[in-house]
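[Solved] Which block belongs to which protein?

Original post:
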Amino acid sequence: MSLKILIIEDEPDIRKNLEYNLSREGYSVLTAASIAEAEQLIYSNNLSLILLDLMLPDGSGLDLCKKMKSDPNVQNLPIIILTAKDDEVDKVVGFELGADDYVTKPFSVRELILRIKAVLKRGDNKKDIVEIDRQFGDLKIDIDSHEVYVDGDLVNLTALEFKLLIQLVDRRGRVQSREQLLADVWGYSAEVTTRTVDTHIKRLREKLGSMGKYVQTIRGVGYKFSRSPDQ
């Protein structure tokens, strides 16, 4: 059975172009031009991923994203946001709401397909593995419950922020390039260029509060997590 992708886009040319190219890749494609139309398809189909435009005729795609991520029935459905808006605030809000990626128009269809495959691959790699908790000073990471605490207070991280934090903490003291993080956390190939890492690192630091200082920027190279809480 082919994977099913829903395109929520009100511009006919873009919608038809995406439908054509994704169908050529072997995906089963559904399309919607509005939030109302999309909601009917979301809850009546077994979808694998959603491509979501932000500027829709009957509302904001961010509102639909927020609604889905608060609904246990569809909250794990991957969402890639498509929009003509190249605003950092919109990107942060999109990621904060749980979107898996953010692509600004005009975009390369080939690159978008690579991103789609990477997001779907991340979903395939999720397995129930019993792991020990991570403790780093006032930072505690509960793997089984996907919960993070700083000085006893729960920190609300998205799934990608959680995975990024684990990647940094498990390799603390070692510098990781943006390309390495893109490959290991997002599953992107070297062909994809994106500022996703920088956006997530910035947001992760803010959410970690007093522990955010341990996520260090190594100029011209990438990022690393301090080797010990004393550093």
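(Second protein starts here: sequence line, then its structure tokens.)
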Amino acid sequence: MSKRDPKRLPHDFHLWTAVASTIDPLRRKGLLKLGHTPLPMPPPQAAPASTLNAPPKRKPARAPFLPPYQAPLPSSPMPEKAVDPLIRKKLGRGRIEIDGTIDLHGMTQGEARAALHRYLHARWSRGDRTLLVITGKGARSNDDYMAAMSERGILRTMLPIWLSEPSLAPMVSGWSVAARGHGGEGAWYVRLRRS
């Protein structure tokens, strides 16, 4: 710790003197017993006449510094519509028959979306209720780990978004990942509403 030069004033000396001038010293009980007389109080300063009659000015209410807390929005861009767990369990065990299957392997996003739209419209008009949509799990590559993770399973990622579109949403009651016997993570059960 460095020694302070007693001749040098601290950098906030002007603040200290301003605060010290507003403070009244405490009276000590022992001073009167020892024969010391208390210092006389300074006479109250008369306020200017203009400030006596005027009411004190109110400061305008300040807006809060931060906006009120809001809960974060769900990370999912589309509403979650899962197939009823009891129906999904029956589908996985083979107790409910699958009315149709479409395989989107090897298609581009545009081709797969168009094929899905045509297929769902045709099956809904026929009165089918349960469909199996095979998207695949996506290709894996060991060359570029981050590219493989971000590009893996684009059809699998896009299927719930396509099913939430206004043209398909009125027909679809829900969707869930298929059971292992029907393709696991590479396939979806799609449940249609009654026409």
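Accepted answer:
You had them paired correctly. Confirming on the second one: The CA atoms of residues 24 and 42 lie 10 Å apart.
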